[in-house]
Amino acid sequence: METLRHIVLFIHLIGFATLFGSWAVQAFGGKKQITGLMTVGLTIAGVAGLALAAPWGLPTGASINYAKIGTKLVILLIIGALLGIGSARQKRGDSVPPVLFWGVGVLTAVNAGIAAIW
Question: Where are the transmembrane segments (predicted)?
Answer without folding.
Answer: 6-25, 37-57, 69-87, 99-117
